[in-house]
Design brief:
alpha/beta; nine-stranded mixed β-sheet; 12 helices; 40% helix; Carb_kinase_PfkB-like; PfkB_dom
């Protein structure tokens, strides 16, 4: 089976379920977005969180996707940067416990934290303090980190550091890897559209985008956006929430349905776990349709729990569902 390595912000998610969205307005966080925050804003959020019930989990878009892949038994690795603190050790321990080849670098800054607000409708909003994660630089990366893998999965949240991303991609390409990019957030796409367009057009093989990200990237609705993105890379995926996903490779186009869910608890990691399922299918050599259906199973399950950690019995059920998909 092909192996996948992720490159991303090593963040610990601190999740809180909201009764209403008042705190989002209070903190100046647009619902459904990811906003970078400073230490002052982090302290304000922590003060509010201290009065609420919170849940701790490893996070970061690429980290979530790699954790999902590892939970299915895929060969995985992860490159990121943490602080020499309890949260950094928590992140490293979680990688090791899930048999993920950890390539974590350490610095003196505190580990990154994603304060995650879960609205009553399940939508999640992030106030992200990058901390140590933001210090991952081009000079930290070597070609040895990528040797032995087939795919590099990059989260769009990293694109602000143009030098580091280009260096990572060029090293991975030199080592023979295919590049997968998740566009991450509509506001990230809007703020760095020219550079993201360059990446997709010249380097990226597989693009994951949700409906809002695809529109920010192309100015088009999902079906048209799919065609635009597919003309720039090998495989384009546009996720459309409860309506499923569109996938296109060359002239082949697939529409996969989302699985039925009684209650959406928290959409954190839904896109990341779709990517995990899709890439798992790809590493196994399955058809685009089966890859997308496996992605739908994972994303449909993770939105039924708070955060991205699912219990063993849920993973056992997921694997049974995947076996059913494979046998069809």
């Amino acid at each position: 089976m092909d192996k996948i390595i992720g490159l991303g912000n090593a963040l610990v998610d601190v999740l809180a379920t909201l009764n209403n969205d008042d705190i989002l307005h209070e903190m100046g966080l647009p619902k459904g977005s990811m906003q970078l925050i400073d230490e002052t804003k982090l302290q304000q959020i922590n003060t509010r969180f201290s009065q609420m019930s919170t849940h701790l989990a490893t996070g970061g878009s690429a980290g979530n996707a790699i954790l999902g892949l590892a939970s299915l038994g895929a060969g995985t690795g992860f490159i990121g940067k943490v602080g020499n603190d309890d949260l950094g050790r928590f992140y490293r321990d979680n990688l090791i416990q899930n048999n993920i080849d950890e390539k974590l670098l350490v610095c003196d800054l505190p580990s990154g934290i994603a304060s995650t607000f879960i609205s009553p409708d399940g939508e999640r909003t992030f106030g992200t303090f990058l901390g140590a994660a933001s210090t991952l630089k081009a000079d930290d990366l070597t070609i040895d980190m990528f040797v032995g893998y087939t795919y590099l999965f990059i989260e769009g949240y990293l694109v602000q550091d143009h030098e580091m991303i280009l260096h990572a991609i060029k090293l991975a390409k030199k080592a023979g890897l295919q590049i997968c990019l998740d566009l991450a957030s509509y506001n990230v796409v809007e703020s760095d559209l020219q550079f993201i367009t360059l990446l997709v057009d010249q380097y990226v093989d597989i693009v994951f985008a949700n409906e809002e990200e695809a529109k920010s990237f192309t100015g088009k609705e999902p079906k048209e956006a799919l065609n635009v993105i597919a003309s720039m890379c090998s495989i384009a995926i546009v996720k459309i929430g409860s309506k499923g996903s569109y996938i296109k490779k060359g002239t082949e186009e697939v529409h996969a349905k989302a699985i039925s869910v009684n209650k959406v608890v928290d959409t954190t990691g839904a896109g990341d776990y779709f990517a995990a399922g899709f890439l798992y299918g790809l590493t196994c050599g399955y058809s685009l349709e089966k890859c997308a259906n496996i992605g739908s199973v994972l994303s449909g399950n993770v939105i039924q729990v708070i955060g991205t950690t699912m219990p063993k019995h849920q993973w056992d059920e997921i694997k049974l569902n995947i076996n059913n998909i494979i046998s069809q």
